[in-house]
TrEMBL record:
<protein>
    <recommendedName>
        <fullName>c-Myc-binding protein</fullName>
    </recommendedName>
</protein>
<dbReference type="InterPro" id="IPR026060">
    <property type="entry name" value="AMY1"/>
</dbReference>
<dbReference type="GO" id="GO:0003713">
    <property type="term" value="F:transcription coactivator activity"/>
</dbReference>
<keyword id="KW-0175">Coiled coil</keyword>
<comment type="similarity">
    <text>Belongs to the AMY1 family.</text>
</comment>
<feature type="coiled-coil region">
    <location>
        <begin position="39"/>
        <end position="66"/>
    </location>
</feature>
<dbReference type="GO" id="GO:0005634">
    <property type="term" value="C:nucleus"/>
</dbReference>
<keyword id="KW-0539">Nucleus</keyword>
Length: 80
């Protein structure tokens, strides 16, 4: 039996047809299929990478601020 058959029956029996059949299929297939462990691992990895990225951006901002204290203003450099 095709795994799409129950979803297609649900779409056929839906009183108010969705504007996007593809979204309907994705929703129903995602709800009926168990979560793939690889997908969950990738989601966690992406979340970790986002956190690291934000931390690096903050660190970069702080380091630039500290560096600016030791560098002469641009106008003084041109006058030398």
């Amino acid at each position: 039996e095709c795994f799409l058959f129950p979803v297609l029956v649900a779409l056929y029996e839906e009183p108010e047809k969705p504007s996007s059949a593809l979204d309907f299929l994705k929703h129903h297939l995602g709800a009926s299929a168990p979560e793939n462990p690889e997908i969950e691992a990738l989601r966690l990895e992406v979340a970790e990478m986002k956190e690291k990225y934000e931390a690096v951006l903050e660190e970069n901002k702080n380091l630039k601020s500290k560096l600016a204290q030791y560098e002469p203003p641009q106008e003084e450099k041109r006058g030398e």
